[in-house]
């Protein structure tokens, strides 16, 4: 196929995919100003526009900043500093005045889309947690009077230290001492469809326990994976593990549906002599890999396909921040506007990363369709008469099979209960055998086309029924066939997976996720191509 034809195909597919799935993950940047040498807000606004960044987090509602972002179409998250919480919580009139004098004159020419109330209050020296919700409620009331309560989301950003433990992710829970403050706050978020905001720093986890944590794992460059023993979910980077810990902690409190937004994440380029990992190379690697990781919506192991909005921390080095040397060196730019390292915000030019077992560039698990073949076979073995099954290839490595097995039993929506202990297909208790069962079920449920037996190349179609003893391998109804359209409608018996995380989703929902992960593999190159044309 010619390059031009491929390009057109990609464009079509991407347009379809965007129509189908709507918005994607967004990358924003934090614009902290704890420094005495930064460029003027107008210069900064120009820089951000030049970088083509569409989402910016600021930490207060400084009028010069609000003015600088007028008519830029940049979506602004503003902050209410901890020092203002008392005033905001105490009197509605304080908030009404603030809104009238500080926000409304610049809205909507400055596109303020969210307000983060308080900054990591659980870590703040004064116990301000009790003020957060009353402040949020007063802001909500004030916005409502102005008719803006649907346009501007209200939340509060938190440190990961709000969890009592974060590993393994499935065991994560919020600290008991914060529950009385969290529960009503989470109810507020659900009621107003606002996200839970969290700041994630694999850097600190690495710095503070370098003997336990591999640098590669923190930098998204690990070639091995860490398994959560309770769920079997595999983690190839710490960011996903931290984010899933938040999802599990929310689920444990029965807040399964609340979205999570990562309001800060980054890596310092310089630190004290003890902070050996704080280098420009590592900062570049982390931020580049983070952008590349979220941009195609791969989600996390526990929430595949989930959109993740991430704000990179931070735009500038901030010379007045107290603490260790690294604190003043999180910026991608020096105060004079020179870049500390050449970060590509589009994710187009990526540092050579690790090869995941699936060999997938996006980090999604192998899924049928992860090949470069645009010719999709429909109908295939299930329909015509020749019966076929799909089994794991004995040539494939255990890691590859495990990863594909996890995909099939998770996002692939296969009911894998038959390979659980005491069930008919548990013995032989090998990944090869379990993967064969899961691959075949997926293949038959999907209509038995060759494409459905790809799994990143670790499976093969066979003519002989692999069933043994009481372990019966599914076969698609031979004559009435399971017709599948290009749009990917599956008619068949799809049992929803029984995972503690699976929100009460319909089978359609599960299938949508599969389509998303298939689409990502097609979409990413398209995205990259279109970006490079725009640039
Ligand atoms: C913080 O204050 C709230 C109410 O103002 C109180 O319920 C909570 O126990 C306090 N937390 C700590 C850690 O002191
Ligand atoms: C900007 O500041 C950095 C760090 O202080 C320095 O290395 C660099 O030379 C400066 N660039 C310009 C153009 O002044
Ligand atoms: C990934 O792909 C490369 C190049 O196509 C290949 O050499 C390598 O063996 C593959 N690795 C795995 C784990 O499949
Ligand atoms: C497509 O896949 C085939 C077979 O796996 C491989 O030989 C070929 O190089 C691939 N083409 C591209 C453009 O990746
Ligand atoms: C791609 O599709 C063509 C036409 O159906 C088929 O002959 C070829 O084997 C496929 N290649 C791969 C790598 O699936
Ligand atoms: C499946 O598709 C074929 C070819 O398009 C068609 O002839 C057949 O009637 C379809 N079967 C069902 C059950 O829809
Ligand atoms: C899938 O096909 C079934 C049966 O033909 C139909 O009822 C359903 O509406 C279709 N769903 C979609 C999303 O097309
Ligand atoms: C789907 O499968 C489950 C268990 O395998 C079975 O109980 C159920 O009756 C099936 N439903 C249909 C519509 O075939």
UniProtKB/TrEMBL annotation:
Residues 388-473 form the X8 domain. It comes from the Eukaryota. The keyword Glycoprotein applies. Residues 356-372 have a biased composition (Polar residues). It is found in: Cell membrane. It is a lipid-anchor; GPI-anchor. Residues 1-24 form the signal peptide. Residues 351-372 are annotated as: Disordered. GO terms for biological process: carbohydrate metabolic process; defense response. One of its GO terms (molecular function) is glucan endo-1,3-beta-D-glucosidase activity. Belongs to the glycosyl hydrolase 17 family. This is glucan endo-1,3-beta-D-glucosidase. It comes from Brassica carinata.
């Amino acid at each position: 196929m010619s390059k031009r034809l491929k390009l057109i195909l990609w464009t079509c597919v991407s347009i379809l995919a965007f129509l189908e799935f709507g918005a994607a993950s967004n990358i924003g940047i934090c614009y902290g100003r704890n420094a005495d040498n930064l460029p003027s807000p107008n210069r900064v606004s120009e820089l951000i526009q030049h970088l083509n960044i569409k989402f910016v987090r600021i930490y207060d509602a400084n009028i010069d900043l609000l003015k600088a972002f007028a008519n830029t179409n940049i979506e602004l998250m503003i902050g209410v500093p901890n020092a203002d919480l008392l005033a905001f919580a105490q009197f509605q009139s304080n908030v009404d005045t603030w809104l009238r004098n500080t926000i409304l004159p610049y809205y909507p020419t400055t596109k303020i889309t969210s307000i983060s109330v308080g900054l990591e209050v659980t870590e703040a020296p004064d116990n301000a947690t009790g003020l957060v919700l009353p402040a949020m409620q007063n802001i909500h009331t004030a916005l409502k009077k102005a008719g803006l309560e649907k346009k501007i989301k209200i939340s509060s950003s938190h440190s990961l230290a709000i969890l009592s433990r974060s590993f393994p992710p499935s065991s994560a829970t919020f600290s008991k001492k914060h529950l009385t403050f969290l529960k009503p706050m989470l109810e507020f978020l659900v009621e107003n469809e606002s996200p839970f905001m969290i700041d994630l720093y694999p850097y600190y986890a690495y710095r503070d326990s370098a003997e336990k944590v591999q640098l590669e794992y923190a930098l998204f460059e690990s070639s091995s994976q860490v398994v959560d023993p309770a769920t079997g979910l595999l983690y190839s980077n710490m960011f996903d593990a931290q984010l899933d810990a938040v999802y599990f902690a929310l689920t444990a409190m029965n807040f399964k549906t609340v979205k999570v937004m990562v309001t800060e994440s980054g890596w310092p380029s310089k630190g004290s002599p003890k902070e050996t990992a704080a280098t420009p190379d590592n900062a570049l690697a982390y931020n580049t890999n983070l952008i590349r990781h979220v941009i195609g919506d791969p989600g996390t192991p526990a929430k595949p396909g989930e959109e993740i909005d991430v704000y990179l921390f931070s735009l500038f080095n901030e010379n007045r921040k107290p603490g260790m040397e690294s604190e003043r060196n999180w910026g991608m730019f020096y105060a004079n506007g020179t870049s500390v390292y050449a970060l590509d915000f589009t994710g187009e030019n990526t540092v050579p990363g690790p090869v995941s077992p699936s060999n997938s560039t996006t980090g999604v698990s192998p899924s049928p369709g992860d090949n470069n073949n645009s010719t999709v076979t429909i109908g295939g073995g299930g329909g015509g008469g020749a019966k076929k099954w799909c089994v794991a290839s004995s040539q494939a490595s255990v890691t590859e099979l495990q990863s594909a097995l996890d995909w099939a039993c998770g996002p692939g929506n296969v009911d894998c209960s038959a390979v659980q202990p005491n069930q008919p297909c548990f013995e032989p208790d090998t990944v090869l055998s379990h993967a064969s069962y899961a691959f075949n079920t997926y293949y038959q449920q999907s209509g038995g086309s060759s494409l459905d037996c790809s799994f990143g190349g670790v499976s093969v179609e066979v003519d002989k029924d692999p069933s043994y003893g009481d372990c019966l391998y599914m076969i698609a109804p031979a004559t009435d066939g399971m017709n599948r359209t290009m749009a990917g409608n599956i008619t068949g018996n799809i049992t929803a997976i029984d995972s503690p995380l699976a929100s009460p989703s319909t089978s359609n929902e599960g299938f949508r996720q599969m389509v998303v992960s298939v689409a990502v593999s097609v979409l990413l190159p398209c995205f990259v191509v279109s970006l490079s044309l725009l640039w």
